[in-house]
Amino acid sequence: MYGKAFAPEYQGPLTTLSVNSSLTDVLAAGTEQLRAAERAGRPGEAARSGLAVAEAHRRLGRVEEADRAWKASYRAARAAGDTAAMAWALWSGGTLARQRGAFPLARRLLRLAAELGEHGGDVVVRGYSLAGLAETGRIQGDYEEVGRLHEQLLAEARRRGEARHTVWALEGIAQMHRNTGALDTAYALFEEAADIAARAEDRRGHAWALRGLADVVSVRDGDTERALGLLSEAEASCRAMQLSGALAYNHKMRGNVLYRAGRHPEARAWYERALEEFRAMGEPRGEALSRLGLAKSLARLGRDRHETATELADLARTLERIGLRHARDMVARAQEELGVGADAAAGAAR
């Protein structure tokens, strides 16, 4: 049995905030409490309030502000001698690093956060940090390495009855099954995640689960309208909570669904929109994936083959540099699909 989802990153005076609070409300409340703690000379409270500020900025796509905020939270926690608060700040920093495509830094910060969480006796931040490491590996395509960790974290979350973390783990495992072609298994896991999230009132987790379901429905069933309906339902939650990153990925998925349906002009428009959103928030993975979808759509709409080959070759180099192996394989498949193989693309780039 799962209880109502909660947001452990909202700490100290901010524990009254809901997991579904709008990010502008979180930012306003966090900033007010942070300033009050600083004026009163209470670094421990400043660290806890600063964590919420950092997370609100990150989820709003304000990466520079988020970077300053998590570092300030860490310094305040260190000044207070609060090991667990230091761990939470490092978790926030590691999550931001992953969002920005700095995967080695993300791994380093998240490992440190897990270690400090264990030393500080905070099992939640330890679990979130290990989850962050698992997600980093999954995004990079290291499924064998992180699959067992995902399963371990899922078992721990189920045992504690922690809905939000259970939903996260189910979605990560589902995504790996989807990417390796086990679509029925992926659908069942996304469906379970959506059900748990809905009952726990976790709108963020529910929105991500609906996005996963839409993807599988589009690929497996070819049911474009149902997929678009699921994405519209998810978008409502993203907008209510002002989840900039989740909304951009929702828009990119709309492009995917429309592209598969052969509706290439509509797909192009959604990929262009997502690309603009990802660029505004400095999210290189989403930007690269949107560029890939846009290149495929433009090719279907008659773009010159050499231009397509050049674009895909540049994308392949970009993804190799970022360290996204699964996404690099997606480029290779696009080159094959569009008849601009890697050799032709390399020649076009020269």
Automatic annotation (TrEMBL):
Q: Which domain of life is it from?
A: Bacteria
What Pfam families does the entry give? TPR_12
PANTHER family registered for this protein in UniProt: HTH-TYPE TRANSCRIPTIONAL REGULATOR RV0890C-RELATED, REGULATOR-RELATED
In Swiss-Prot or TrEMBL terms, this protein is called Tetratricopeptide repeat protein
The protein's organism comes out as Streptomyces viridosporus T7A
